[in-house]
Amino acid sequence: MATSTVTSAPGADAKAVAWMDGLCGAVHGYRLAVNEDAKKRPKSEVATAKTIGESLGRYAELAGKAVEELNAIGASAVPVGESARKSFVDKFTAARDAAANGKAKLEAAKAGDSKALDAAIEAMNAAQNAVMEAVDPVSPIAGSPELMAAAASAPKCKPTS
Q: Is the pTM of this model over 0.85?
């Protein structure tokens, strides 16, 4: 998945830089944590109720953390920034809720219930699909020169992988 790149912009507004750093940190933080978790899982691991439940729990945790971080940065003074923030909050909230609900249903099911396992897999897909496009925090603010300058100076807007 491609993400926008920015170069340093001298003279960017400090509050806007801090806000963009928070936005980028939440979005990139989620993506990087999910990628790191995927690297840690054995490739030969067979999908079982336990592994799917653990994955759903981790997705719910990471998406919930992103929602908290996005809410913590507060509203943007720039309308396009606020629109982007709200869009990311909505996407990560949907992912969190889908994963948490899927995990809860799986845990409530009887052992060996294949329908519950199928539903858990569907919940995982729903969680992943909700944030499929939520990987680039910079492109949604491209219409704002102020926020683009801030993004260029915000350390967390420079993804590491």
A: no
